[in-house]
Structures are given as C-alpha cells and as structure tokens.
Give the backbone structure.
Amino acid sequence: MKSKVANKPLEARKASPLLVSLSAVFLGIVAGAILIAMIGKNPIAGFDRIIFGALSNVRRVGNTLGMSTQLILIGLSVAFAFKTGLFNIGASGQMLMGGITGSILAYYLPLSMPRPLYLLIIILSSGLVGALWGFISGFLKAKFNVHEVVSTIMLNWTAYWLVYDWIQRFIVDPTIVVKSKPIEQAHTLRAGWLTDITNFSTLNYGFFLAVIACVIIWFILDKTTVGFRLKAVGSNRFCAEYAGIKVNRSIMISMAVAGALAGLAGLTYYCGYSNIMEMGKMPNEGFDGIAVALLGNCSPVGVFFSAIFFGILKMGRGSLAATGIPTEIADTIIATIIYFTATNVILANFWNGRFKKSFERKEEAIAIALSNQGRSGEDISSLSKEERRNLVKLGMPELKEKRKNEKNNKEAK
Amino acid sequence: MEVWSVITSIIPAAIAYTMPLLMGALGGLYSERSGVTNLCIEGLMLTGCFASATVTYLMQSAGIGYNLAIVCGIVAAMLAGALLSVLHAFAAINLKSNQVISGTAINMLATALTLFLAQTITGSGNVTVLRGIIRQDIPLLSKIPIIGPLLFTRTYWTTWICLLIWVVSFFLLYKTSFGLRLRACGEHPSAVASAGINVHKMRYIGVILSGLLSGLGGACILATYAGEYNSTSGINGLGFLAIAALIFGQWKPLGILASTFFFGICMTIANMGRVIPVFQGIPTGYLGLFPYVATLIALVLSSKKSAAPIASGEPF
C-alpha cells in the first residue's frame, strides 16, 4: 500500500509566467486590432501583412533575425539590471555610445587588418564604452542616491548630443553632412556566407554574439556567486546588506554589465544591421528592449524568444504601407503589451481564478464518482493521476446534470 | 552693457522654457506627495502637446478664431493628460503594480499612440499649428526699470496662468485640510486611512491632477516656443527634466519654482546659444548636452539628503 504522507495535498494550478506573458501578448494584439478597426481598416489583413513582411521568404526571415539581434542584447541588458532591482531605461544612450565607438574604429582602423583581430577589437571596445556609460548611472546611484531612471535618461540625451558632435567631427560623410560615412563591408559584422544563404538580408555575426551573450548571462545569473549576490540585492536590498553582500558594488557591477550589453547592441545595430549613423536620432530599440525583457520575464531564454517576437512585429510593419495602416501600430502594440505585463497581477488573478474554478469542479466530480462506487471515504490526493482523470470523466455528467437542475430551480424561483 | 543685453535676451526666453517644466514638476509633486511615483510626466506632456496641436490645428484650419482655438487646445490637452493618467492611477493604485514599469509603459504608449494618430490625421508625423500665442508687453509694468524688461515684456499669457496655478497649488497643499490629507497619504497612508479618509481616492486625485497639469505643460510647449508636435524629437526628455527638477527642488513648491527656472535657463542656453554672441564658439552638440549634464550635477548635489515622500511608490 502507498503511504499517504508522501502525497502532497492537491492544489489548483497557478498561472505560470509564460501564460501571463502570452495573455499580455494576446491583449496587446487585441488592442492593436481594435485600434486598426477604429480607423476603418481591416485588422486581419493588417496582421496578415505583418506576418508576410516578416517571414514570407529567406531574406525576410534573415532581416527579422537581424532586427532581433539588437533586441536580444538590449532585452538582456534591461533584464540583467532588473534582476538587481535596477531599471535601465538608458539602453538607448549606451547603445549610441557603443555604436559610435564601433563606427569610429571602423573608420580609422586599416582595412588590411586580420579580420578576427579587428572583430575582437571592436567588440571589446564597444562593450567597454557601453559599460562605462552604464557604470556612471550605477555609480551615481550607489554613491549619491540618484534615481537610475532619471540619470539614465539624462545620459541618453548626453549621448545623443555627444554622438551628434562626434559624427560631425570624426566620421562625417562629406556628401550628406547629417550622416556618417558608410562603413566598408569588410569592417562591419556582416559575413559573406550569411549574406549569401539569406539572400542579402541584414543578418550578421551580431546574432551569434547575441546568442552567446544569452548563454553567458544565464550562466552568470544562475551558476555563479556574483549572479547570486546581484539577485539577492534585487530581491531585498536590506536583507542582502545584512548578509554581508556589498550592495553598492553590486549596483555598479550590474549597471556596468547592462551597459556593456547595450553597447554591444549598438555595435550590432550601427556596424552590422546598418552601416551608418545619423545625427540627431535616438534609437527606439532602447525602449523596445524594456518590453522584450518584461515580456521574457527577465530570463535569458524568455528574452530570446520575446525579442524574436518583437523582431517580427518591427520588421513586418514595413509591409503595412499597402493597407494604409500607419506603421506605428507595431509600437502601439508593444507599449500595450508592456502595460499589461506591468499590470500582470490582473492577468495572473484571472487565470488563477479560472484554474481554481475548474479544480473545484473536478474535485466535486471525483467526489460524486467515488460515492457512486461506494468509496466515499477515500482521500482524493491518494489516487493516481490516471485514476483521477477517469473518475472525473465518470462523475462529470452527473455534476453537469446537478448544476443544470440547480440553475433551473433558481430560475423557477 | 553687453552683459545686460545678453541677460535681457535670455531671461524672457528662460521664463517661457520654465513654465512647461514647472507644470510638469508641479504635476509630479501632486502625484508623489499623494504616494504614487509618477515617471510618466514625459508621456503625459507629450500627449498634451499632441492633443493641443491637433485641436488647435483643426480649429485654426476651419477658420475659427486663433485665440479661441488655442484655448480649446489647452483644455483638450489637460483632458487628454488626465485621461492617460487614469491608466497609470488604475495600475498603480488598484492593481498595485510596479509603478516605474507602468509609468514607462505609459510613456511608450503616449509616444506610439500620438504618432499613430498624427499619421492618421495629417498623414505625416508632425502636426503644426498656424499660429501660436503672440507675445505681449504688460502695460505699465513693462515700463518699470530693470524688472520691466526682464519679466513683463514680450510675455505669453500662459505664463501668468501657470504662475497663478503655482500660487493656488501652494495654498492648496499647505493651507487646506485637503492638502494636509494629500501630503499625509504620501508619508503615512495607514494613518490617513485610520482617520477615515479614503487613501485610494486621494491618490487618484493626486495622479489625475498630475495628468491635468502635465497636459497643460505640454500645451504650453506647443503654444509658446515649439509651434508643432514633432514625432521624431517628441519633447526631448523635458518630462524627465521636470522629474529631476522635482527632486532638485526637494518636493516643495518653492524649491521646484527655483529649480525649474534654473533648468529653464539651461534650456535657453542650449537652444539659443547660437544667437547669443558669448556662446557662439561652442559647438551645437556641447550646447545641446549642457542642460542634461547640469541636471545630473544638480541631482548629485541634491539626492543624498533626499526629502522624498516616504510612502511614494508604496502600494496601499
């Protein structure tokens, strides 16, 4: 006979982060559809165009992955800071700083350099400059208690104007004075074989960089003491302090790593996905990264998949022109999704309520089935899963009958 | 004498730049004092700017009086700001969600939604009004030596409305029982609740007031110096400057008046630097980053001894 102690009491299922994220996506898409319908267009045709634009051939798939590359890196950046309880909305600025570093190096380093060495240099230096830019916010937070949201925004605009000046000063295109000179193919992250197999898409080495970054960040967060300390600071700053963790140092490390990831995103964006930098343009991707991180529940795997999803939205919207729907619908959907992930309590409550109801129904059905079989004294949690499923099937018709009668009685009254 | 001419050209412009910031910061003050962290001032101001641009543009093109159109635009901006702020209030107060994330979501929503609507209405990302507010000299007062040319010449009438709102807010927050309750909600909500006052209602009022005022701030940007809603630059992080001014001003009305004026001067130097002889040698990029770096320095100086409302950001 099985011992009953080993059986945990049965409980209703709880909503998983994945389910909550998917619900947020669903609601975001519904909101987008309503908005499209409100301006008198056909939502289904709109979403059909988005899917078409993002995935209909090899080249478009390549472009979507190329777009997702920076979203993965920025999503990781925001997620990493978030694990330490910091909200990095300065990814745009860190991205600009990483991008300008890569662009200036690409402009001045000789083309005859061995390519692996060249790639190593630009990857390391953009990461470092991005890290420095993130570190400033971490330092200000740790030493002067400056809220990181405000300081990162200020640094975004500082970077915006610095880049404005540096493009003009160092790498300007003499024919179009508001842009930098296009980088030679050999000095971007693009690779001949990738371009060939994807029919001249924007897919580049950056994608592999992003995947490697996902693995490294997962390793740091889940398998090292550094990661544990960062997460401890994030979940309870004071508790971590009592446990002897250096909170201020963790904050600075976390922001520096986040900055490095965003800096790399800048490199993949300006020296891979594109090959020029424009003056006076704040990259939107820094803010999309917040959506990516939140939707991915701040885990590297989640970030990867949500970045691909947003990549599809952002690439696919280019094909909307024919339908007359403004392409900003994609950004509206993204923003709505963030709002719903921020208010995830409401979604989790909804699903938990649902699960609880169905759980209670099943419990009742089993009780009916057991009493029919003359085993009414038995504990439900001692039954095996299979047995429970069969009992639910046996008891359900009678339960439905009972409910129906109850309802009829109520109406009769 | 050259110094004097620089001052007389900077100060009136600085006042114009100060008013939207002051309204944003005052909005933030109401919200944070009631205990809700409000990082969506930027989005609310942008929405206000867009709403007033659209209403003013449509009415002016329809041939309705220029000034009436501007007034209607301002009212529309305040309503739009309030409407969007309810979304933040609902998330922050009822759902007890992370207020920083909710604020960011509102910012992004405002950016995307206004651009989406602008595309639908005008077909381009910009909405430009035909005419903004005309600057006027105040009779008599503008003749006063020194103060006259600085404060009372070439002023916008919105400036006086904003200052009036500031005075009323000061009175409301510190001299009425409503103000006392609102401030208490940000410091010790359970004490307020035990006195039989509805904390949620007070917080809703705080957040909606911040929406109204930020919307007004956005409308001021449009009607005074900007003249258009521009999708590419938005409002250049002005909403965040307002939050920084709130921190720098230590969450007090007098403090934020001083700090927003300081940022107003920084903004003027950044935007008018090229026409002022003293700053002409400095490249545009460095002039542009000046207000943001000044803000960071101001934050470093003021954040250590922070007087933030204790319960700000804490759900109740």
About this structure: Residues 15 and 163 of chain B are 11 Å apart (CA to CA).
